[in-house]
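User: Second chain of the day. Same drill as before.
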Amino acid sequence: MALPTAPFESARYIGSVIQVEPATVRVNLPHGAAAISSSHAGHRVGKGEVGEFVVVEGEAHGILGRIAEVRLPDRDRLAVEPASDAHGKPANPVGVVQLLLSVDLLSGEALRGVTMHPRIGQHVFSAHPDLIRHAMENGRSGASEAIVLAHVPGYSTTEVRYSATEMFGRHCAILGATGGGKSWTVAHLLDEVVRHRGKAVLFDATGEYRTLSRRVRHVYLGGRPTGPEDEREFVSFPYRHLVDGDLFAMFQPAGGSQSPTLREALTSLKLVKHKPSLAEDGLLKKANRSKAGYNAAFRQFEAEIRSQGADYDIGLLPAQIEEECVWATNRQQNPDFWGDTNQATLGYCTTLISRIEVEIRSDELAPIFRPGGLKDVTEVLDEFLGAAEESVLRISLEHLPHEHNARELVANGFGRFLLARARAGKFLSGPMVLVVDEAHQFLDRSVGEDANRFRLDSFGLIAKEGRKYGLVTVFSTQRPRDIPEDVLSQMGMFIVHRLVNERDRQVVERACGNLDTAAAAFLPILGQGEALVVGLETPMTMPVQVLRPIDEPESLDVELW
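Assistant: Same format as last time:
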C-alpha cells in the first residue's frame, strides 16, 4: 500500500509551522497573499487557500490537514491595498490548519487522529490529489467491487471510492437543502447498484426518478393510464396489507361507540372468510342470534384473523358496522345471545359509515380499496427479486393522494412488509438496498387525529434492525431536523450537501461523530453536487464532487417568469 506520490515535493511547499495546538496548527503562508494560484505537474497548487488540503512533514508520518482560516496580521493588512503607501511591501499571511489524520510514510496506511504532533518550523505542503484520495480510501482504490462516488473537487480525474460495506452496510443518509444535489447523488448511487448487479427498491415520492433507464422496473401506486398508448405499469397495495391502526388513521372513528364498533366489524369480516358458514350474504349478522358459533370460530381462528395480511371484503365494512350495532344481550338478558338493533349506537355510527363508503369508493384510493385487476406490489417485489436482468424496482407514489394519510400509510405498510420478509431471511443471500426519497415524510410522524393517531415506524425499525437481515437503507431528505435522532444514530455513512438552516446543521453535527465544527462551517457554501462525506469507517471528513449520474433526475423547479 505504497504512497501514490511523494508527499513533500518542494514545488508544493506553502509554509512552515509557527504554533501547535491539540487539533490545529498555525502556519506561515508566504505565498498566501498572491492574487492567483500556481500549478505543478498539471495540478493546481493553492499555496494558502481556505479549504485547501495540506500535508505537514514529519519523521515517520505525514499529517494531513485542511486550511480552515487565512488572515493577515494587523501590521500587514494594508500591504494588499493598491492605494496604500504600504502596497508592495511583503505580506505575511497566517493560516490555521485543522489536523485530520496521519499517513505512515513507510507503509502508506492512513491512521485516524494524529500519532505525533508537528514541531515548530516543520514544513507544510499542498497535498497532491492522489495523496488525498489514497488517505481517504486507505488502499482500496483498486478494488473492483468499490462504489465510485465522486472526485476530489477541482480534480475530475481523481475519483473517490468506497467499499459497498462502507457505503451501505450500516445504512446511508443523504442530506441537504433543495438544489444541493441530493437527487443527483441518489441517482448516481443507483447507477452503482446497477453496475454491480445489486438489488435496490426506490420509493420515489415525487416521480423525479422516472428518467432511470438501466435495469430498472417502474411501477406506479396510484393514478391511471391516460390512454391505450400509456405503457406505464400501475400496481395496487391492497387493504389487507394494512393493519387495523392504519385503517383507524384513515377512517378516523370517533371515540365512544364508533371505535369499538369498527374494530368488531373488521374482526367479524375476517372471521367469516375463515368460517363462511357463519355468513349470510357475506355478513356476520348478530341481531337476536346465538353467540356460540361466533365464539367457537373466534377461538379456532384467532391467530389467523389477528395476523398481518388477514383477508376480508372491505366493501362489506359499512354494512357489517350496521350489524355490529346490537345490544349485548337479548330481551331475556341471556348473555349467550345478542339482542335487537341498538338504534342509538347505529345513529352514532352513521357518520363513520358514510365516511367509509366515500373513501372505499374513491377513485384516488382505488389501488388500496378496489385493486381490481392491478397486480399487488408485493407480488411485483417477488418477481423483481427473481429477475436477474433487473437491479432497481422504482415504486412511484406521485399519483397517490395525501388525503386520508394514504401515501404515508401505504409507504409505511410496504416498509412493514419488507421488514417481515427480511426477518424471514429473504435477503440474507442477496442484500437489498431500500432507498427512501423525501424520507422526512415517512419517519417519526404520527398521522390521524386524537385517539386514532398512528405512528409511522416501519422505516425506523428497518434502520434499527434491518442490517442484520440483509436489508439496508438510504434515506434522502432536505429536512434532517425531522429525522429522529435514534434513526440518524444508526447511519454509518453521511453524504451531506449544502445546508443553510442552522437547526439542520446542528442535527447533522450531533449525528456525525466525525464532523467537527471547522468542517461543518463549509456546509452553507457547498456548490451544487458538492458534499461532505462522513463515515464511521472513513478516516476523515472528505469534501467531494459527486459524479454525474447516467440518467439525471427531472428537476421539479418551476419557472415563474
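The longest helix spans residues 343-360.

User: Great, on to the next one.
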